[in-house]
């Protein structure tokens, strides 16, 4: 009898939870800008974006979610001439957010979280990556009617964090630089609704 009583709430909970996988591409603004004789910028290349999200329906049109995001990228140095590859890193982030369903398959999301640069400890990362960077995330999705069976969604995601590393502080950079990132993704349901 006890097993039946605990199984029913568990079934209701899992019926409201869904797991989603997203794939896409991400653009990021400049991480470091300096100007000695000519402007020098360090910028990530356009990178793949892989996201795994867990959503849980809340009351009304709201949904809570947790998203893990991985994005490996090359780092290039741009001067007045051609750009040169100077390393690579993988961005790993976790965000917690809420979504609101709108009309016509459109939803909006806001979230907060933390981002970590996993690096090879060279260049601007030679003294470490700088720890966990807090971030704010915004996003919107559109669920086209033809993808209803697999709950397909096309997403546009934006996040903002401020960047600096211990190596940059050592050479005189004192202020954290805002980094804007934009990703376009396509997602589908793995488990749940």
Summarize this entry quickly.
The protein is mostly beta strands and 193 residues long. An eight-stranded antiparallel barrel has the order 1-4-5-6-7-8-9-10.
What is this structure's SSE topology?
Elements: H1 2-16, E1 17-28, E2 32-35, E3 39-44, E4 47-57, E5 62-78, E6 83-101, E7 106-119, E8 133-142, E9 153-163, H2 166-170, E10 177-192
Antiparallel strand pairs: 1-4, 1-10, 2-3, 3-5, 4-5, 5-6, 6-7, 7-8, 8-9, 9-10
- Number of helices, where a helix is a run of at least 4 consecutive DSSP H or I residues: 2
CATH architecture: Beta Barrel
Give start-end ranges of low-pLDDT stretches: 1-14
Radius of gyration: 20 Å
- Described by the principal axes of the CA atoms, the overall outline is elongated
Q: List SSEs in N-to-C order.
A: HEEEEEEEEEHE
What's the main sheet like?
Answer: 8 strands, antiparallel, barrel
The counted number of beta strands is 10
Domain count: the total is 1
Query: In what range is the share of β-strand residues?
Result: over 45%
CATH class: Mainly Beta
Distance N terminus to C terminus? 29 Å
Mean pLDDT across all amino acids: 86
